[in-house]
Amino acid sequence: MTAFDTIIIGAGMSGVTSARMLADAGRRVLLLEARDRIGGRMHTDRSAGFAVDLGASWIHGITDSPLWDLVRTLGIPTIEFTVGSFQAGGRPIENFDGDGDPMDAEATERWVADVAWADLALADEIARSAPGDTYLDVTERVLDRSGWTPERIDEVREFFRHRVEEQCGAWIGDLDAHGLDEDAIEGDEVIFPRGYDELPQRIARGLDVRLDHVVTRVSRSRDGVVVSTDRGDFAASHVVVTVPLGVLKTGAIEFEPALPEQVAGPIARLGMGVFNKLFLQFPARFWSEDSYVLRALGEAGEHWHSWYDVSAVSGRPTLLTFAAGPFGRYQQGRSDDAVIDDALASLRAMYGERVGRPVAHWITHWGDDPFSFGSYSHLAVGSSHRDHDALAGPVDGVLHFAGEATWGDEPATVGAALYSGHRAAERILNRPIAMSDFAGRIAAREQTDTD
Ligand SMILES: Cc1cc2nc3c(=O)[nH]c(=O)nc-3n(C[C@H](O)[C@H](O)[C@H](O)COP(=O)(O)OP(=O)(O)OC[C@H]3O[C@@H](n4cnc5c(N)ncnc54)[C@H](O)[C@@H]3O)c2cc1C
To answer: What is residue 84's predicted lDDT score, i.e. its pLDDT?
Structure first.
């Protein structure tokens, strides 16, 4: 059996980052990937002649972001699209009230102010919360003391519920009170007109990547690690496991000996949420040119509530909406037609019969995906921020974990995947690696290849 220095399991953003850094340091690296493609939860469908990002789309805040610096060094084009994260104001949002009627400027201003007040009060409530308190507990306490009418309370309550669903893919009552502590957005947000998976693909260029290799077992001893796949065994001194938390939770990969509590505990405690996308392309635009987002509040937006105008990517009128948390799991079990009809009924509650039949659609099923079993991790009640970083290991000095779920600062993001992959490579090399050197080497190699 050929022995490698390091085997990386999973060729998503964290895996390709670790692999590239280690290969650049002269290590013999093997990347084993179950799918027939690189990128994992960064997945762009280009079959229609333009990019549709079925996984990650946004950099949520480009200020002081090493991820943004990497994107710029590689010259990857982006489009500014702030309010990609769940915000009440910030950029033009077309709001509709609980009856599905458009809200005027005054009502909108009051609504944005209500959310701002509630968020401020929420910060205090979270700081005072007791272990075991859920995000539902703390938001209800804030709403209880708001003194608002039931309608105003309902609108803000729905907003909190939907924010948790979108940011965490979870039901608000399952999220720890501290589950959105790391949710700050610094600076503008951007999306990728050529598709976000260009980034991991370019990082991986030239690496030894074996696609269609499903890892089933990882056995470690003092001499190193043996990784078993459906296509044979591979040995190395170190292994970096980057498969999603959802896969670790199912036990689809057997660890021998069993993982210690230091890693097994966080795997059990942290939550894996479901966040699915529905893109609908229409024959003509029926919403305002100037809006980034259409949002239904209160009853009108109980299920399908936020519609993001992503027409700039394809040049065709396209709305993106999400089904997340329990609603997302429920929609996964339905036919495409049923999902589309349901979503169209919500749009028609706001825009009436102007809403035409979509000419194309894309629907994701991340919760059922056998190589993901969910969309991203969150702080389920009973877990703590420390669980994310504890999950990284290492175990017995040879087994490392990376991936969004292992990065406590901003889990559930591409940035978390990048930084956790970086950390694993530094731990294996036992020295720091400058992010700027990493980016510069990729750009220089590409330049040499084109000369
Ligand atoms: C719908 C959706 C929207 C999102 N939107 C955003 C966004 O806008 N901005 C943002 O920053 N983040 C977003 N995210 C989160 C972001 O995509 C992830 O945090 C990030 O891509 C995770 O990278 P990773 O390397 O940790 O995991 P992954 O990309 O999942 O990589 C893990 C790899 O392991 C492979 N694997 C699994 N099991 C096995 C096995 N048994 N053997 C071998 N290989 C295996 C998988 O196929 C995969 O390629 C979104 C995610 C989803 C699902």
So the answer is: 65
The DSSP secondary-structure symbol of 20 reads H
Q: How far is the CA of 11 from the centre of ligand 1 (A)?
A: 9
| Distance in Å, CA 144 to ligand 1 centroid | 38
Q: Which two tokens stand for residue 47?
A: 């079959």
Specify the residue for token string 């340091």.
25
What SS3 class is residue 335? coil
User: Please, what are the domains in the chain?
Assistant: 3-42+197-270+383-450 (3.50.50.60), 45-86+186-194+273-368 (3.90.660.10), 107-174 (no CATH)
The residue whose CA has the least distance to atom 52 of ligand 1 is 55
Beta strands 44-45 and 52-53: pairing type?
antiparallel
Q: How confident is the model at residue 1, as a pLDDT?
A: 65
Cβ of 200 less than 6 Å from ligand 1: no
| Length of the chain counted residue by residue | 451
For residue 309 the two structure tokens come to: 């105008």
Q: How far is CA 311 from the centre of its chain?
A: 21
**Per-residue b or e along 232-270, where b marks 16 or more CB atoms closer than 10 Å to that residue's CB:** eebbbbbbbbbbbbbbbbeebbebeeebeeebeebbebb
Ligand 1 centroid to residue 356 C-alpha, Å:
33
Q: Contact, 229 vs 265, CB < 8 A?
A: no
**CB of 376 sitting under 6 A from ligand 1:** yes
Closest CA to 156 of 183, 184, 117: 117
- pLDDT for the residue 2: 64
Q: For residues 152 and 298, is the Cβ–Cβ distance under 8 A?
A: no
Using one digit for the tens of pLDDT, what is the confidence trace for 80-107? 988 767 777 777 788 888 788 899 989 8
